[in-house]
Write a structure and sequence with these properties.
The complex is a heterodimer of chains A (113) and B (142). Chain A has 113 residues and is α/β, with parallel strands linked by helices. Helices cover 38% and strands 32% of the residues of chain A. In chain A, α3 links the parallel β4 and β5. Chain B is an alpha+beta fold. In chain B, α1 packs antiparallel against α2. The chains are: A alpha/beta (113), B alpha+beta (142).
Chain lengths: 113, 142
């Protein structure tokens, strides 16, 4: 998959919606990271929503990406929320204890967006 | 040691674009045993971690070769070996501590070995400084 197609970013009501797709590994993480960071700095949102519903694969590079964006959001006073991770992605997030510092929302969160 | 039923070997240049190729190739080989989707996902994740380690930490993004060997046995045991001839790990025990990373950018989670340990049944990491790292991972399929 082309790296440019891995992320789609939209800003609505001070909320940055980041839809990630495909495989997030060490190779793809760099460009995704840069794209999200640029959007955070440019738009100064209050919320950053990482939609992982279309992410097929994620390893610890993906964990690093999520944790790094959490810090970037925190730096500008924004809150980062993980949205709709698949069962497989949720497993690696939970293994790393991500849910202890970052809120993870399921399908019920759709109506709020 | 009993002889394996099947085996494959793969040598790849230490390029990050090959991380996906490495896990897909190992998954395709192991798929011959009809593993569950979860088992296959576990193996892909562990392979991705080990190959990324070789590229990022072993060769430090310099040119090198990542050696991948996979064997499976009649009892559905899969053994995956991933080796590099990079800089090696000074203290393997410390490197395997969750959240430990030598990266200073804040973008590495330090969870690579923890992922391998969680998703595989057995993990053995051996290293000699300046000679490289050998990671041996075992998975018993249902």
């Amino acid at each position: 998959m082309l790296l440019e197609r891995l992320t789609e970013i939209k800003l609505t009501n001070y909320t940055l919606n980041v839809k990630m797709r495909g495989d997030i590994d060490h190779h793809t993480a760099k460009s995704v990271r840069e794209k999200i960071d640029e959007a955070i700095l440019l738009n100064k949102p209050r919320f950053v929503i990482l939609d992982l519903s279309n992410v097929d694969f994620m390893d610890s590079s993906g964990l690093g990406l999520v944790l790094g964006r959490y810090t970037k959001a925190l730096d500008i006073g924004a809150k980062l929320i993980i949205h709709k991770p698949t069962r497989r992605i949720k497993r690696i997030l939970e293994m790393a204890g991500i849910e202890r510092i970052i809120e993870i929302k399921g399908d019920d969160y759709d109506e709020m967006l | 040691m009993k002889c394996c039923d099947n085996n494959m070997k793969l040598y790849l240049p230490s390029l990050s674009i090959n991380e996906s190729m490495a896990r897909q190739a190992v998954a395709s080989f192991v798929a011959q045993l009809n593993p569950t989707l979860e088992e296959l996902a576990d193996i892909k994740c562990a392979v991705s971690e080990a190959v990324t380690n070789a590229i990022v930490h072993g060769y430090k993004y310099k040119s090198g070769t990542v050696y991948i060997g996979v064997k499976y046995y009649g009892d559905r045991t899969v053994i995956i070996e991933i080796r590099d001839k990079g800089c090696g790990i000074e203290n393997v025990k410390e490197a395997m501590t969750p959240l430990f990373t030598t990266d200073t950018s804040g973008e590495r989670s330090g969870m690579g070995f923890a992922v391998m340990q969680t998703f595989m049944d057995k993990l053995d990491v051996r290293s000699k400084l300046n000679e490289g790292v050998r990671i041996l991972m075992t998975k018993h399929l249902k």
